[in-house]
Specification:
The chain is of the alpha+beta class. Helix content is 33%, strand content 22%. It contains 12 helices and 19 strands. It has helices at residues 3-10, 16-41, 47-58, 61-71, 75-97, 103-122, 132-153, 180-207, 212-217, 284-288, 321-328, 351-355, and strands spanning 269-274, 280-283, 293-300, 311-320, 336-341, 346-350, 362-367, 370-371, 381-383, 397-403, 426-431, 437-439, 441-450, 456-463, 469-470, 472-473, 483-491, 494-504, 526-533. Strands 2-1-10-5-6 form a 5-stranded mixed beta sheet. Strands 3, 4, 7, 8 and 9 form a 5-stranded antiparallel beta sheet that branches. Helix 5 packs antiparallel against helix 6. The longest helix is centred in the middle third of the chain and has 28 residues, at 180-207. The structure holds the ligand Nc1nc2c(c(=O)[nH]1)N[C@H]1C(S)=C(S)[C@@H](COP(=O)(O)O)O[C@H]1N2 and molybdenum atom (MO). Molybdenum atom binds at residues 254, 301-303, 388-390. The ligand Nc1nc2c(c(=O)[nH]1)N[C@H]1C(S)=C(S)[C@@H](COP(=O)(O)O)O[C@H]1N2 binds at residues 251-257, 299, 301, 341, 345, 376, 389-390, 393-396.
Amino acid sequence: MNATTRRQRDDPRLPLWAAVAAGLLAVAAALAAGHLVAALVDPFASPFLAVGNTAIDLTPHPVKDFAIRTFGEDDKLVLLAGMAVVIAGAAVVAGLLSRRGALPGTVLAGGLGVVGIVAVLARPTLGVTAVLAPVISLVVGVLVFRWLHRLARRPAGEPPEDATVDGPSTRPVDWRVPGLGRRRFLVTSTAVAAAAGATAAAGQFLGGRVDVEASRRSIRLTPDVTAPPIPEGADFAGDGTPTFLTSNADFYRVDTALSVPRVRAQDWRVRVHGMVDRELVLTYDDLLARPLVEKTISLCCVSNEVGGPYISTTTFIGVSLSDILAEAGIRPGSDQIATRSVDGWTCGTPVEDVMRPGSDALLAVGMNGEPLPVEHGFPVRMVVPGLYGFVSATKWLVDAELTTFADFDAYWVKRDWARRAPIKTMSRVDRPKAFEQVPAGRFVAAGVAWAQHRGVDKVEVRVDGGPWQATTLSTEVTVDTWRMWRAELDLPAGSHTLEVRATDRTGYTQTSERAEPIPDGAAGWHTIVFTARP
Ligand SMILES: Nc1nc2c(c(=O)[nH]1)N[C@H]1C(S)=C(S)[C@@H](COP(=O)(O)O)O[C@H]1N2
Ligand SMILES: [Mo]
């Protein structure tokens, strides 16, 4: 009997479940192996993370905006989950296509590996050794797939003398009958799954072995100049505004980092170079040896929609950035400070905003009396009051190069956002919420306004397009922080529209003209539609 007729007779196609299992397990083993190798080389080389990070960098801004708007701070979890679903789908397809021969699955497993290699090579901060992780991933994926595939269709070797099901050893195992081959495949698959799980866990453990939290906990910050205490009446939290200071846990978070960079204070350095008279390299201890000052500042994100939540206020602790730059000596002609974080994100800040007298720009090491939380840039970040975060607030800072706007475009500038982006004068209604039902009659509306570096002078509201009416403002803390407003309204029963506008100290009043967040921040009046019920 020749090979062809035997194959026809015995239908050597893999059972559906075995094909799917081989695909899924091969991909799981590949990702786990890559994750473990990455932990030893560079945690950012993990193929899964590298693909996710590259996906973030390649995502067109409308989609990124949509993700931030829709999923908020869960946007990264959603991305990782989405990737897991896509990869699992590809693995299932690879298995299903390979019921006859292992080639299609091999090609697909190899293809996924190549995607990982390309993603790691595309990461700006990963060295060449990092490519080891996705290469091992590729090899493991292909080998495990071919191994499971062969196991699934091969006769189970010499059966024991008393085997009743397998029959003569020359006959392939019939998969639809419980027997040795199937049992062996099940046992092997389970072992592969367990090994993949253990490998991934080991990678996770080893990757996290840099104990950033211990480093953070060991630090005590004692400012030489403390911020004035927040006065009574700095917020109208009882009327629905945020509290004046945002807790570290509630402080908004926006960044492109899929896994939060983990840099210990003792390992941290920043290099100040480029168009300077002398290059500086500063350690964390160097920073703490300088005068530590506290500054209360409201930070906000350019992708905040009108009425959006991406603004928070904290008392930062840090050292004067302008002092450091003055020490380095900025050469004439340099108009941009290009900063880079340890994960490769870049930012461009106008020299003039940092160097102007009283700019209060900081290399910040703490907020609200504690070292910076890891997700807010531990050990050191930059803060420049008056500028949106994407042009000023580099977290996990490691490099500052004095350059020009003509010579360097930062991360978001390359993606069509503005080169220069001072924070726009803005106001928001916090109470009532959109479509809220409130009792008719006397009602206290409240919210917040900000115009960092200029200060909020006045906030007005109007109901149903009527006359603008003044609101009561909270006690001003600094021109660089937000200010709350409250207004007593008398509402007849029915549906209403409430609009708010702020005027800053330069005399500028927000106009009704709407602007999208891209390229340099949203504009327009926050407008709430709500109902007063009798
Ligand atoms: N390393 C790094 N720093 C970054 C970013 C980033 O993506 N990576 N995002 C910036 C943006 S867009 C904003 S609005 C602020 C937000 O800081 P927060 O997360 O501490 O609120 O960080 C800035 N610093
Ligand atoms: Mo931002």
